[in-house]
Specification:
With about 725 residues, the chain is of the alpha+beta class. The chain is built from 28 helices and 21 strands. Strands 1, 2, 3, 4, 5 and 6 form a six-stranded mixed beta sheet that branches. The chain has a four-stranded mixed beta sheet with strand order 13-15-14-16, with no helix packed on it. Helix 1 packs parallel to helix 3 and helix 11 runs antiparallel to helix 12.
């Protein structure tokens, strides 16, 4: 068995490495075999299976001999008692450095499933990976290959440990592989993690894919044949083939289609087309042929050749209508395809690149991580990495044409803070593509963003930290704003907090009882600490107002959002038992389809909240929370949405027509004008989240609509 895998590894290495470098890999294999002799994995297999499997993954990515050698030896120091000096003597300084860096990563804290402990351990793990990566980028590739091989054999571990490792893989390792451009590793990590976290969903989708495969492949094969003939006629030498989606990506796609009222059978783009050509000019020729042959959807076109992604990815993406259904088409050169699958690993001539003084595209975010490591506390660091580094990105331009990368959904304020912290503090306005936009405008790929800054010193506004207003989406910008307020004098923070809370209370028509009674609800000993937290941005007035409006001591008229019509609660299942007294919380207005949790009140039964409700998140008496679920629901539910748009004739008529077309009743409408824009607040009665999502999507399609959001939620991205 070992001889066979050894032969496969060496054969794979010989396909792209000179023989003298293959000899180094073979020497490392023999060394590891002797060091691990007699050791077994928890599955009962010889331990050598693991380093050999890790090296095989890296050989498939065509890494250099030094990396393959370090992969074979990465567990030898810790598990076999072999000193680093012995590795250095036998394999040289460079291999020893990689082995040492990987060994440090192997000592990462073991993940804990759930709770604060999990978050702190994730932060510590990220910090250690950061240090090792800064020393040599290849260390992180070995760690990713190590995680992938462990995920392939995860089934032998206890359930709790499996879930913890799978969750960490989905949250950290798969996005990290994507950020480095290794799609072949990213999708495997996602699918394997999804398989353990949601086994029923995984197997259900796998069965659906298998049952529909023949019809989908026939659909795509016909498209390939027709397009290949057109490319040949035009003299473009190209290879076209189907591009299957993977189980986890299908799962996410199904969620999107469900909100549009479609089922699995309607998802034809589970298979797309990929066209490979010899040159960049052929890419654009092929694009012209595709658009001439099939009707393109203009809003679905992206040119990642002229504007590469931050991880080095290049390709043309377009969606066309084929036989009445959307069909995704990707066009790229063979070299672009190799980089798309292998990412930075495609540059296996690592030392040659380094000697030439070049840097890998796609790792420009590493210096940002180094800065955050030293500047932010544990919570801010983890959130910044997840939202600003590992999340999906958009690419925008400065007025001078420089490309800047931000997390998807970012705003002009996020852009200003990314350029320079002081520019963020002094930001008073923004232009996108030459047009004035609100500071909570969601940036799109290709936008040209200009920031209007105040002259002289200026501080940020506390409103920028209000999630309902959606001014900042990146953790980086939010942390910088927090830092500014934390540096202010405590007395000033207390005064600012008082004024800010009083203003928001007046706007919401809510009365603040004794501050000494309210402060403990949020974990503060006295009123000064409470107001100081608001003044420095650590506590948002919306959280306070939400808590007050559902306080058992508050009169009902203060919390009734739709007094004209009383709505009975849905049928709620409490721990599998029906017919209990329940009511829907007026602070967050849960709808069927929302994730919900019950709160046991005194004498009023169970109050049902959304799980992301601030009152649930900040609840001190956790023992009063109880699991609930939706039962059979037929009635309608109140919900409020806000539409921000450029003011024009017929705007209200057009929105009302869409709402009426969806069979939704309007109970109230309010309008507020802001210079060239207007904000419309609609009180509606809907059957559930699916109907609401479909309605919001259609309103977004109207000309001039800038933003649509459900009351109490962060802005829906456009």
């Amino acid at each position: 068995m070992n001889l066979m895998e050894e032969t496969q590894l060496l054969a794979k290495a010989r396909a792209y490495l000179p023989e003298e470098q293959v000899a180094l890999v073979e020497k490392a294999y023999n060394f590891a075999r002797e060091a691990h002799r007699g050791q077994l994995r928890k599955s009962g297999e010889p331990y050598l299976e693991h380093p050999l499997g890790v090296a095989m993954i890296l050989a498939e990515l065509q890494f250099d001999a030094t990396t393959l050698t370090a992969a074979l030896l990465h567990d030898v120091p810790e598990d076999c008692g072999v000193s680093m000096d012995e590795i250095k003597i036998n394999f040289g300084d460079e291999v020893a450095k990689l082995v040492w860096g990987t060994t440090k990563l192997s000592k990462l804290s073991k993940p804990v499933y759930g709770g604060t402990a999990k978050r702190e351990l994730q932060v510590e793990n990220l910090r250690k990976m950061l240090v090792a990566t800064a020393e040599d980028l290849r260390v992180i590739y070995i760690k990713l290959a190590d995680r992938l091989h462990n995920m392939r054999t995860l089934g032998v571990l206890p359930r709790g440990k499996r879930l913890a490792i799978a969750q960490e893989t989905l949250e950290i390792y798969a996005p990290l592989a994507h950020r480095l451009g290794i799609q072949s590793v990213k999708w495997q990590l996602e699918d394997l993690a999804f398989r353990y976290l949601e086994p029923r969903q995984y197997h259900r989708i796998a069965r659906l894919v298998a049952s529909k495969r023949e019809a989908r492949e026939g659909f795509v094969n016909e498209a390939i044949q027709a397009l290949s003939e057109e490319l040949n006629k035009a003299g473009v030498e190209a290879a076209a083939f189907g591009r299957p989606k993977h189980v986890y990506s299908i799962y996410r796609k199904m969620g999107k289609y469900a909100s549009q009222g479609k089922d699995f059978g309607d998802i034809y783009d589970l298979l797309g087309l990929r066209i490979l050509v010899n040159s960049v000019s052929d890419c654009y020729k092929a694009l012209g042929i595709v658009h001439n042959f099939w009707h393109p959807l203009p809003e679905e076109f992206n040119d990642f050749i002229a504007n590469p992604k931050g991880n080095g990815y290049q390709s043309l993406h377009t969606t066309v209508i084929y036989r009445g259904s959307p069909l995704e088409v990707q066009i790229r050169t063979y070299e672009m395809d190799r980089i798309a699958e292998h990412g930075l690993a495609a540059h296996w001539h690592y030392k040659e690149v380094e000697k030439e003084g070049e840097s890998f595209r796609g790792v420009a975010w590493l210096p940002q991580l180094v800065e955050w490591r030293d500047e932010f506390d544990s919570k801010e660091f983890l959130e910044s990495v997840k939202t600003d580094i590992l999340a999906e990105q958009v690419f925008v331009f400065t007025p001078k044409g420089e490309i800047k990368e931000l997390s998807k959904g970012a705003t002009p304020l996020d852009f200003a803070f990314r350029i320079h912290t002081d520019l963020g503090y002094r930001c008073v306005g923004a232009k996108v593509n030459g047009r004035l936009v609100p500071l909570n405008y969601n940036l799109n790929n290709g936008d040209v963003v200009g920031i209007i800054a105040a002259k002289g010193e200026k501080g940020p506004s506390l409103d920028w930290l209000n999630p309902e207003l959606g001014y900042v989406k990146t953790s980086h910008a939010r942390a910088k704003i927090h830092q500014w307020f934390k540096k202010q004098d405590r007395a000033q923070s207390i005064e600012v907090g008082k004024q800010f809370l009083e203003r928001e209370l007046r706007k919401s028509d809510v009365t603040l009882p004794s501050v000494d009674e309210v402060a403990p609800l949020f974990g503060f000993k006295n009123g000064d600490d409470f107001f100081a937290a608001i003044g420095c941005g650590s506590l948002n007035p919306s959280q306070v107002i939400a808590r007050l409006t559902v306080s058992e001591e508050q009169p009902e008229e203060l919390v009734e959002v739709h007094p004209a019509k009383k709505i009975s609660p849905a049928s709620i299942k409490v721990l599998g038992i029906g017919n209990l007294v329940t009511q829907l919380a007026n602070c967050c207005h849960p709808l069927p389809g929302d994730k919900i949790l019950g709160y046991i009140t005194q004498g009023r039964g169970i109050t049902v909240h959304r799980r992301d409700c601030p009152n649930i998140i900040n609840e001190v008496e956790k023992e009063r929370l109880i699991e609930v679920d939706w039962g059979e629901v037929e009635q309608v539910y109140p919900v409020a949405i806000q539409v921000d748009a450029w003011d024009r004739v017929g705007l209200v008529r057009d929105i009302s027509a869409i709402i009426a077309g969806e069979g939704v009743n309007i109970t109230d409408v309010n309008m507020a004008d802001h210079d060239d824009t207007t904000s419309l607040k609609f009180s509606l009665e809907v059957r559930g989240t699916s109907q609401l999502a479909n309605l919001i999507s259609k309103i977004y399609s109207l000309w001039g609509v800038v933003n649509v959001r459900r009351k109490g939620e962060v802005n829906v991205q456009r």
